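Give me the fold.
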Amino acid sequence: MSLRTVLLSLAKTSLLLPGLAACSQADPMVQPGTSAADAPNELSDAPSTQPAPERPADIRAADLGSLEWLYSFNGIDLPVSVQLIDGAAAEGSGAELTSYALDEVVYGDVDGDGDEDAVARINRSNDMAFEGLWYVWLAEGPDVVQLKYPIAQTGRCATYVESVVIGDGVVELTEYLRIPGLDDMIPCSDPGTGLQKRSVTVHAEGPDAWPVQTAPVPAWGGLCPGPRWPDTAPGLVDLWAAPSAGAPVAATAAPDGGAVFELLDAPLMQHDGWALLGFRLFGVETDAGGADLACAWGAAA
């Protein structure tokens, strides 16, 4: 063999040796008996540092009979706190004793967000009066939150709430109103003859949420105080279903589209820059004999 041939052979061997070493070198991340494909990936297998998403509150698991409620007498006064224990509470004594009790609870999606909510009735009674108010309880994240505005009221010689049914994002109310004059001779223990069906949902903007009526006309979904005066001149102003210009429109200004009424004082419905007004739309027929005054919000002068 020539010297040239030997030198070429040695050179080829020296070029191959690093590659062989690289192929035979053990991967420090691979345990004996495993391949590189089976090796753990430090990035993908490390525990996640992202917080787990909050589970929505289970409204059915919330004990509404053991929570603190807001209660507004007649549905329009400033609310007082009432702590229920085993579904009941009492304040005062003797002739001044006032009792509260949790009544019927209906479940379903009130605000259309996909989570179950509740509409619950709480009764208030004493020697002089009895009333029941229906309140919305919303599942808000991990909590249940009461809407402070009641959506229906029942009592002696007053509106009778026949049914409360929650559909897909709406509460369907069937009520019987007492029509002045026509129902004056009906005993207070019996319902009036003015049939009224209403649909109510919730309009939310940030931390604020209000009940709004969607049928028979867009309007305020809370209780409506009576008119301060029985008559008014025709004419509408711009009105919204809640105290926000982002709420559904209830009426627009028109000289002959309906009438607006000044309402009795309602401390619960005081909102800066807004005034709650009663209104009727001409041409809208109902079975309530004119007793079903709707309410909506207008910009305060």
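The longest strand covers residues 194-205.
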